[in-house]
Amino acid sequence: MTQASPDTPLTLTLGALQQWHAALQCALVHSESPDALQHLAAALGHLVAVESMMISLESQGQAPQLLYQQGIPLVHRDAVLGRYFAAGYLLDPFCLAVQGGLAEGFYHLQDIAPDNFFDSDYYKTYYLGTGCSEDSYYIADLCDGRKLSLSLFQGRSGTHLSPQQIDLLRAVEPVVRELLGRYARHNLEPGKVSLEHGSLQAAFDSFGCEVLTDREREVAHMILRGHSVKSTALELGISPETVRMHRKNLYLKLGINSQSELFARFIDWLRQA
């Protein structure tokens, strides 16, 4: 595939286009088989050089369930596949958007992340800390209310997807959703309630409940998710000055002085859940 600069149109060589069509045909042929996700990932790899992918089942009120991954380095798998699915997803902007009713489609991380997310400790830990700096997502609705998400990770090599590459991925969204839907209809059982997630979600909701007021806990959650003072004020319908007051009070009550300490305290809280 040819690599275009951000200011020039993205084109595929004839050979790259033939490879994409051949891989897409293979993915369609295997779309109802157990290895359908592997073929879908391979087809996308012929379209755009993506470093790693992860396909998950997203269910309302439950932890995401990993179905397939490709290209995640062994050194980072514990962080990405262990810590993330154990608790880290609770602060992930994409998971939060899905739980909030995000419509099916294609999204780039910048489309849905809070305004201060890229300065948050969560981003530094779960993205930069694992060699990833950006993420894109396909999301497909399933007939039983669940969703399939396909995440595309980039940044480990220092390269980023150009706007044209992102547009190309967005353009094939309908066929990606169709392939995800075919796989789900023939390979996924009806959803089941996750009791483990229920206790983890309760721990998240009750973080700081012994010393913080309800509003202070709401502000703490917004900070942890990567919202700025201005964004928090808009989301909660209060003034920025009130947000700063709540932030100051919750820091005092928790005996901390920074967002980094708040994040560390929150992670310790989840580990004890």
From TrEMBL:
Lineage top rank: taxon: Bacteria
Keyword Glycoprotein: no
CDD domains for the chain: LuxR_C_like (cd06170)
Keyword annotations from UniProtKB, A to Z: DNA-binding, Transcription, Transcription regulation
Domain HTH luxR-type, residue spans: 205-270
InterPro entries: Sig_transdc_resp-reg_C-effctor, Tscrpt_reg_LuxR_C, WH-like_DNA-bd_sf
Entry-linked PANTHER family: DNA-BINDING TRANSCRIPTIONAL ACTIVATOR DEVR_DOSR (PTHR44688:SF16)
Protein name as catalogued: Helix-turn-helix transcriptional regulator
